[in-house]
Amino acid sequence: MKCIKMPARKTPPKFDCLSAMKALGEPTRLRLVRQLISGPKPVTELCESLGATAYNVSKHLRVLKEAGLLEMQKQGQQRIYDLASAFREKLSRNSMTLDLGCCQFHFDKLPE
Questions:
Q1: 66-107: per-residue pLDDT in tens?
Q2: DSSP characters over 37-76
Q3: pTM of the predicted model, to two decimals?
Q4: 56 belongs to a structural domain
């Protein structure tokens, strides 16, 4: 009998408060998260709304994704980013306050 090795399942990253705080400690990343609160967006739309280059936005999106705050799906040539479900659970009902337990981020009170 031959054993077939099944590919490992990718489990979504668990929410880590310290990683989130490190990732959110940069104004551009906070602006990206604020843009994504309303729903998934392609990189091109995020670049336009922030007035930043695709290279710069992609670097910040990678940091947020590695911290477990974002999820990414490919649709043809585009990459669509959205808040990770574990991260979205930490948002208040009005979606503009992130409660990490030790601190809160009020996205509606941040400078543009």
A1: 999 999 999 999 999 999 988 888 777 667 887 777 777 787
A2: TT--EEHHHHHHHHT--HHHHHHHHHHHHHTTSEEEEEET
A3: 0.77
A4: yes
